[in-house]
Amino acid sequence: MSQVSVHAVQDQSTDLDVLRAIRTVMTFTIADVFDLTEDEVLWVSYHLDQALVPFAGCKMHSIASPVRQEVLTGDFSDKLNRRNRGLIAPQCSSGSVAEAHVLDWASVVSNVVTLTYTARPIIMAGFVGAVAGILTELGVGNADNPRASRYLPNAIRFAK
Fold it and tell me: φ and ψ at 61, to 5 degrees?
């Protein structure tokens, strides 16, 4: 795997490309963890798009490797499309139901944004809250009927 500098990716792409890539990586991650239906994937993608709007004017300080991969190759878009068509199986499964608090999930999934943008704390907290809301709507953390996850948040790593 070749190393690509942050500056090279920034020079070749726009802020919008990076935001779209973040949305796609996050959507794929959530879809894989919680085994979302195609309709749920569309819903999550839409709401992540809305939640990412405040980052359009923020300064990028680095780009997480999955986001870089998506910008350069479209790999996560391809995986998401193939997953929605039933052509690939979920990426990880322990065979048992894993549960974690919705805020743990929101924090881990939002980390891809933290690795990419320097934003005011209120913007970052609002984004994590929006992700927590999206996950709650999907049933994550529902005491009566919790949405099962395929693995725990500590299995997700977004490296620079």
Answer: -110, -20
Residue 98, SS3 per DSSP: strand
The CA distance from 110 to 112, in Å, is 5
Q: What is the pLDDT of residues 38-70, one digit of tens each?
A: 999 999 999 999 999 999 988 898 888 899 999
Strand, helix or coil for residue 60: strand
pTM above 0.70, yes or no: yes
Report which of 114, 105, 96 is spatially closest to residue 153, judged by C-alpha positions: 105
Q: Domain locations in the chain?
A: 13-155
Question: How far is 86 from 74, CA to CA, in rounded Å?
Answer: 18
**Residue 14: what residue type?**
T
Say how far residue 48 (Cα) sits from the centre of its chain. Answer: 8
pLDDT digits (tens, 9 = 90+) for 108-128: 899 999 989 988 999 999 999
Distance between CA atoms of residues 3 and 141, nearest Å: 38
d(CA 134, CA 83): 20
Nearest to 18 by CA among 69, 81, 75: 69
Angle between helices 15-34 and 75-84 (to 10 degrees): 40
Give residue-wise pLDDT tens across range 4-37.
Answer: 344 444 445 688 899 999 999 999 999 988 989 9
